[in-house]
Design goal:
Elements (H helix, E strand, L loop, with lengths): L3 H13 L11 E6 L3 E3 L3 E9 L16 E10 L2 E7 L2 E7 L1 E10 L3 E5 L3 E4 L2 E4 L3 E6 L7 E7 L3 E3 L4 E9 L3 E7 L8 E4 L13 E6 L2 E12 L2 E14 L3 E4 L4 E12 L20 E11 L4 E5 L18 E7 L2 E3 L3 E9 L16 H6 E2 L8 E3 L2 E10 L6 E2 L3 E6 L4 E6 L3 E2 L1 E3 L7 H4 L35 H6 L2 H22 L5 H17 L7 H16 L8 H10 L4 H20 L8 H17 L1
Parallel strand pairs: 2-11, 13-23, 25-34
Antiparallel strand pairs: 1-3, 3-7, 4-7, 5-6, 8-11, 9-10, 12-14, 14-19, 15-21, 16-19, 17-18, 18-19, 20-23, 21-22, 24-26, 26-29, 27-29, 28-29, 30-33, 31-32
Helix pairs in contact: 6-7, 7-9, 8-9, 9-10
Length: 617
């Protein structure tokens, strides 16, 4: 008999014969680490091995977050099945398991214990054994240096200070990680600098991890203590929150460094070098060692801002600032929108710069209506740009007064105020303008109509009763007239035609038919609006919105339709876009400006109306 025959018979029996029920595998768990000795900031794998379940619940690692930075590194199930035959009895053994992987990095030096961690599955639980981890302090090394540099050694509360971190490298490295306890120091607000990497030099920049934060680092060259190094450099902005002498906690960089080379086993190994700065030659394989290098410990002396000389308009800016302004249009009616552009310049950090409260500027608030909302602003180069809409309150306004920006100058230790130049205006008095009380449906204003002039004067349009000529006719003459049959037959025919049309159209009202045609009519006329005047675009928008919302279109304003659109689900960017188009059309309409050849405003209107149509369907 061939040797394989008993095996084939066994497999056939195992497939055909019913197997006894298997006992539930007990739930067990154990923990393991790559190495019990690591450096501060050095990443290592913690593995939790589970037996008895292939879909256990996630493990709660909160007990070790105080001492370690934790990142999930994936997991996988580990199942196996085996058959055994004892005294002719076949048994199937199924083992189920799962492995959790976590990447840990110690926050500080010392000996730490990873406590027992609990694994749960379907009401059962198991705990891992404790693990002891010895975390070594970083060591100085002649080939590698880590330096922290502050832009200011003395600063004031609220003053942005640039922290520059430079890593000097004398050898090839890979698998590096930074640990910066300073980033969790509650005595500072930590933010990113203004500048973004220039597009022309993208290859010189890389993104690095700083625990649960990130930074954009620049690769370059530098000199330290008379030696040339390759460098990796990044910046953060520190804003101190309280006065006092603050010693910055040292940072650490942990990495693998090349300490020598050995001959490669094959020529294709050269294609798989993973060094940060590749320098190994053909036929050689790098041998690495794990190192950790500490930084220096700079001290920042923080002072409180003085109370003496602090202006009422001071909003917390510390540094050196300038402010410029321009406005358009400068020839307006009372109540017309004026777009005020403000530019705040500084060589320092601009991220926290805000527009000064315009409502607190007396001369401006006295003559202009100022919205309470202010924009966030946009950084362009060494300035932050803001746009605000204001409206003149009366015809006596001749200029936008200087706008003040108060700040504290740390170089002189004094408060200073920068001012814009006044901007001349021509404001005409007008009762009826573009505001809600002028054209709004619910407003109290009276809509004016135009009076046609005549060379003969108004008396030319007057006719008295004496000019009427008496007319008379007999009954026979009236019946003989050819108009009588038409007068008798025409009304029934008209009634029949209207009834038929009404029947064909069902119960749809004229307003509903007008609403259905509104968007098609808008699209038909929108292409011709790109070179037209603002009043024509405004009229087209009012016609569409009036039809869609069942409102009289002639004098619609944004305020008339805002609430109705919001109730219909139109919100956010669409309402904001529509409001901007209305304001710019009104400004152009009353100031005599044109939309321009680009049709950009028409495109904005089309985008808004398309979104509105989608909501109102």
């Amino acid at each position: 008999m061939p040797r394989t025959l008993p095996l084939l018979l066994l497999l056939a029996l195992s497939a055909a014969a019913p197997l006894p029920a298997q006992q539930q595998q007990p739930l067990q768990a154990r923990a393991a680490v790559e190495s019990p000795r690591v450096y501060v900031g050095q990443g290592f794998i913690l593995q939790i091995q589970v037996e008895g379940a292939d879909e256990p619940e996630a493990v709660d690692t909160g007990a070790i977050e105080r001492d370690f930075i934790i990142q999930e590194a994936g997991g996988s199930s580990n199942n196996s099945t085996s058959l055994t035959v004892v005294n002719g009895r076949i048994s199937r053994i199924v083992r189920r398991g799962y492995t959790f992987n976590y990447r840990l990095a110690a926050r500080r030096r010392g000996t730490f214990v990873i406590p027992p961690l609990t694994v749960r599955h379907e009401g059962r639980s198991a705990r891992t054994q404790p693990l002891e981890i010895f975390v070594q302090p970083p060591q100085e090394n002649d080939d590698f240096k880590l330096r922290l540099t502050l832009s200011e050694r003395t600063a004031y509360v609220g003053q942005p200070v640039t922290l520059k971190t430079t890593w000097y490298l004398g050898r090839e490295v890979n698998d590096y990680a930074f640990t910066m306890p300073l980033l969790d120091d509650g005595r500072f607000e930590i933010v990113d600098p203004n500048a973004k990497p220039p597009a022309a030099n993208q290859r010189k920049y890389i993104e690095i991890r700083l625990g649960d934060r990130r930074a954009t680092a620049l690769q370059g060259n530098g000199e330290l203590d008379g030696r040339n190094y390759l460098t990796l450099q990044f910046e953060k902005i520190l804003i101190p929150r309280a006065a006092g002498d603050i010693a910055l906690a040292p940072s650490t960089v942990t990495f693998r460094a090349v300490k020598g080379y050995q001959r490669r086993s094959g020529m294709f190994d050269d294609f798989f070098s993973d060094g940060f700065f590749s320098g190994s030659g053909f036929g050689r394989q790098a041998v690495y060692e794990t190192l950790a290098v500490p930084s220096n410990k700079p001290v920042l002396k923080v002072q409180a801002l003085p109370d003496e000389g602090r202006p009422a308009t001071f909003s917390g800016l510390i540094g050196a600032y300038s402010i410029e302004a321009d406005a358009r249009p400068t020839a307006v009616n009372v109540g017309d929108p004026i777009t005020l552009n403000l530019k705040i310049g500084s060589k320092g950090y601009l991220g926290g710069v805000r527009l000064p409260p315009l409502g607190e500027q007396y001369a401006l608030a006295r003559d202009f209506k100022i919205p309470e909302e202010t924009g966030a602003g946009a950084i362009k180069g060494r300035a932050k740009h803001f746009t605000q809409t204001i409206r003149a309150k009366h015809s006596g306004v001749t200029a936008i007064p200087p706008i003040e920006l108060s700040y504290f100058d740390p170089q002189t230790g004094r408060y200073r105020t920068a001012k814009t130049e006044p901007i001349g205006l021509s404001v005409k008095g007008a009762r009826i303008v573009t505001a809600q009380d002028a054209e709004g449906i619910g407003g109290s204003g009276i809509r004016q109509t135009r009076i046609e002039s005549s060379e003969q004067g108004i008396a030319h349009n007057y006719v008295d009763a004496d000019s009427l000529i008496p007319q008379s006719a007999s009954l026979a003459e009236r019946l003989a007239s050819p108009f009588w049959p038409a007068a008798i037959l025409l009304p029934p025919l008209i009634f029949a035609g209207l009834s038929g049309a009404r029947f064909l159209q069902g119960r749809e009202s004229p307003a509903e038919r007008r609403a259905k045609r509104a968007y098609a009519q808008w699209l038909a006329g929108a292409a011709a609006l790109s070179h037209q005047r603002p009043d024509e675009l405004l009229a087209a928008m009012r016609e569409y919105l009036g039809a869609r919302l069942h409102l009289p279109a002639g004098a619609l304003t944004y305020q008339d339709i805002q609430e109705r659109l919001a109730q219909a689900g139109v919100r956010g960017e669409t309402l904001s876009r529509l409001k901007t188009v209305f304001e710019r059309c009104e400004a152009g309409r009353y100031a005599g400006a044109a939309l321009g050849s680009s049709g950009g405003l028409t495109a904005e209107a089309q985008t808004a109306i398309a979104a509105i149509e989608e909501k109102l369907r």
